[in-house]
Amino acid sequence: MSEPAHATACAGSDTSTGRSTVSQPIISFRDASKIFPGRGRRAEVRAVDGVTLDVAEGEIFGVIGYSGAGKSTLVRLVNALEKVTGGSVVVDGTDLTGLSEARLRGVRAGIGMIFQQFNLLSSRTVAGNVAYPLEVAGWSREKRRERVRELLDFVGIADKADVHPRQLSGGQKQRVGIARALATNPRILLADEATSALDPETTQDVLALLRRVNRELGITVVVITHEMDVVRAICDRVAVMEHGKVVELGDAYQVFSAPQHDVTRRFVSTALKDRPSPEVLARLRERHPGRIVTVGVDEVAGSSALITRTLREHGVDGTVVYGGITEVAERPYGSLTLELVAASPGVRPLPDGVAPADGVDAAVAALRRVTDVVDLGTAADPHEDPSVVRRGVGQAPDDGPGGEERRARVIGGPARQVGGGPFGGPSGMTGGNDLTTGIIDDGGKR
Ligand SMILES: Nc1ncnc2c1ncn2[C@@H]1O[C@H](COP(=O)(O)OP(=O)(O)OP(=O)(O)O)[C@@H](O)[C@H]1O
Questions:
Q1: What is the CATH number of the domain that holds 17?
Q2: What is the pTM of this model?
């Protein structure tokens, strides 16, 4: 794993945002397990299996995994919609193990939750939905009205207060869900596949709203998803789950740039489309006979200006033939694939002592000193792309001298042992809903 799971203080958010980078955990899982007993011939299910991790106060923490990995069960342990069968979960200093229902209601009051299917009350207006947890909590009519107005303003649907959910788009419904979850000022928001039913553009809008919830209201957000793009867009840290266990845990940028586990590599490859596939590479070689290299671009090494300067110093022309630079946790990350050709001395004088034939080799060596480089050879002498192997089955790459040190600079810590690549209730609702706290539950989707 990328990070000791037992740490009591957690690495927090991006320093460039000016937010605190270290804070105390607001949620702690300690060897937490949830085993659903077998029934008849059905075997027991270890939905959550010995998970130890901390969620830092004020961060956006992602939990990613394929279907059945245990993500939903893990977060349902946080508001005790499911109870641990082993280990413990501590929320905001309170150990939930063995807590009475009355005490649990107090803990739940500090936790909001939103769902993939929104779970709105179809018989109530938008304002009525948002007011619902306030009614349950005993707020006066006047205070409720004021709070609902404030919340609908915050989520950007003040004009929809009097319409019913059926008249709303998916994105608007989720905004109502978010407003309702925030109504009683929770300190934690759990988002269970909150954007999975939305189109890509609406997904971005809702993710931007969740980021505002985190930044402007200081609410810790735990995002469950099966989409690495969601992690890329908003998460500070991420836990990758498989078969009930956390198989990788770390800063989102670090996990993207040096994924350790096969499952993580598969997720990362779905979110980063910057590398040419073998088929694309074959076509590139047909069109570009020169030396093809893929260079990493990130906030420390490999800025395009640095790459251009390095090539110029070696009398080499570089043409971008493929690539993409995106943001991971609001920091630049990606790669460019270049065709390198020694500049003709007639066109541009070579630096002293550089012969045209040496230029490309020397430039590749120099690029390796400033960024991660995958040398794909030429059409006449093609080199295999090790990242195809690396991203597929996880062999450790040889990313050239200085690779570990470079990655350490990128992730802001000491050099690590890494095996990853250089880029390397009421009507209309289902489920059990706690009418005392206004907690809305989707019944665990089962
Ligand atoms: N109430 C339950 N009774 C029995 N088994 C359950 C129950 N809830 C979940 N499970 C099982 O626990 C495992 C983990 O389920 P969980 O819903 O936590 O996974 P998930 O990663 O959220 O999956 P998905 O993305 O499909 O929702 C699955 O095998 C599931 O069938």
A1: 3.40.50.300
A2: 0.77
